[in-house]
Amino acid sequence: MIEDEQALVDAEAAFNRAMVTNDPAKIRRCISADWVLVTTERGPVSGTAVLDAIASGTLIHDSMTKQSIVVRALGDTGFVTGRGQNTGWFRGVPISADEWITDIYRRVDGRWLCELTHLTPASASDETA
């Protein structure tokens, strides 16, 4: 794995760890100011809306893992795609997800920051890449 790709893997791991802290300040260090989350339920959701939901306790993550990772660095842009599982709470109701996740990163001042996260539900029959 080339150095930039390893840096993306490390950035992705840091992003996942930050999400399960449920600490918006820690998450903010992993994402750009314009980060967007794309979901099947709502389409594009602003990073501000996601962080506000976390700060208020409306959205809580208990676990977040990713496997079968595909990583590409293309200059100052890169992406990480993998099959992810997470658990937590939304509005007091337990949630869990099994998804294909693509995070698009941009290198800013030598650091990889996530610009966009796109979620696609996985099915039990999906083969891993």
UniProtKB/TrEMBL annotation:
<dbReference type="InterPro" id="IPR032710">
    <property type="entry name" value="NTF2-like_dom_sf"/>
</dbReference>
<feature type="domain" description="DUF4440">
    <location>
        <begin position="9"/>
        <end position="113"/>
    </location>
</feature>
<dbReference type="Pfam" id="PF14534">
    <property type="entry name" value="DUF4440"/>
</dbReference>
<dbReference type="InterPro" id="IPR027843">
    <property type="entry name" value="DUF4440"/>
</dbReference>
<protein>
    <submittedName>
        <fullName>DUF4440 domain-containing protein</fullName>
    </submittedName>
</protein>
